[in-house]
Amino acid sequence: MSESVVNVTxxxxxxxxxxxxxxxxxxxxxxPDKWARDSEYWLTSVGYMIGYGNIWRFPALMYNGGGxxxxxxxxxxxxxxxxxxxxxxxxxxxxxxxxxxxxxGTLQPRLWGVGIAQTIVCFFxxxxxxxxxxxxxxxxxxxxxxx
Length: 147
Hints:
By secondary structure, the protein is mostly helical. The protein has one domain. Helix content is 67%, strand content 5%. It is built from six helices and two strands; from the N terminus they run ββαααααα. The chain starts with a strand and ends in a 5-residue tail after the last helix. The N terminus is likely disordered.
């Protein structure tokens, strides 16, 4: 199996073979990660879609937004915006077939920063949600202590 590098300096996607002594670190930057099983992909997607915010914050938003009347615009936005954007993002990731930080640069070299911004946002979101989950677990286990 020969290795190849995606050339991001042109508008077209070109695969160039790596020669002996070429930088394999550059090849690793563009080589996509693969899911071992389809179930991993679906569980990760469902985890991102549902998320901690829907469990923790959605009931409060629904209560403050008017109860069941809040569900109408929520479902409207979910069906017309949320699901199509997820489908486009998934198809885009499968079509470009390289790591997230390099995807936008393969389409247009001037868009290289979009992938980096996505990576940074994912990092801060993960940090935020891990903190919330740790607090929740801490409170959960503290609730079993005798007062």
